[in-house]
Amino acid sequence: MKQFLLAFSAIVLMFSCVKNEENKQVTIKESDYFNVRTEGVQTGGIQLIPIETPIGKFKVWTKRFGNNPKQKVLLLHGGPGSTHEYFECFESFLPKEGIEFIYYDQLGSTYSDQPTDTSLWTIERFVEEVEQVRTALGLTKGNFFLLGHSWGGILAMEYALKYQDNLKGLIISNMMSSCIDYDKYAEEVLAKQMPASAVDSIRMLEAKGDFGNPKYMDILMTHFYPKHVCRMPVEQWADPMNRGLSKTNQQIYVIMQGPSEFGISGRLEKWDRKNDLKNIKVPTLIIGGTHDTMDPKHMEWMAKEVQNGSFLLCPNGSHMSMYDDQQTYMQGVINFIKQVQ
Would you say the pTM of this structure is higher than 0.85? Predict the structure, then answer.
């Protein structure tokens, strides 16, 4: 599903209005939004950005969609190690509102360089990568919105805690502020919603480290993923989501997250920023789903802990609320971006 939303090019649409420094109205028209802003050979908005790491230089893949001088949203995908592709549903919503957004495959993900040195897979290094991407794309305090989903939400929180002076707004989508609390929620709430025999089988296979056993994923796909990851029949999962998740870099995913979404057992296992949320001062939207893998009550609490927060609950949504409660999710994101001046 790659919808580039040019169907409405036959008519002149008026997009959202934003304020410039003189407090005058700046109207984004379709001709402005789709205007090519670079010279030479065109690449469809794709830019390979060189980044510095402790072990050398690499390149990461980005793709800009649209133009808006005041509303630029950098999307941080989950995984860790997934791809930008499951965000393609944004193309059906943000362009008609005149909101510019940027796809970005983090280092190690499919469209970016894929080094294998495991020392690279740390939160701290990923934060510095995001900052280098921001600088290369020319994103500033006056226009830079950061949206992080799942693992991307962890990365977005960490980025804000270090570099929030560069942000205009922050969106944390379907992610708690503590992996410790998430593990507790998975054990005490989510596991109890599954048949005891299924939980016992998962625990037995995990204890053996037998994650490659087809039975392991079969149990998750039957009793967990369709209820808490995406509440749609598996055979109806959207193509962008299937592509993005199927290309996950397993080295990164297992090292940082662990082998499944049913709890965290990798380097992120002890990650906890609950006590630091109070230091986030930029306008912040927290999004959660009623049926999420993440505790919606915890995410609602997060919105009260940050200095300028709001909470969006997707009542029919799970971890991929941008698909299974799409209208609620997208309208909430759009409303938040438009309200931040």
Answer: yes
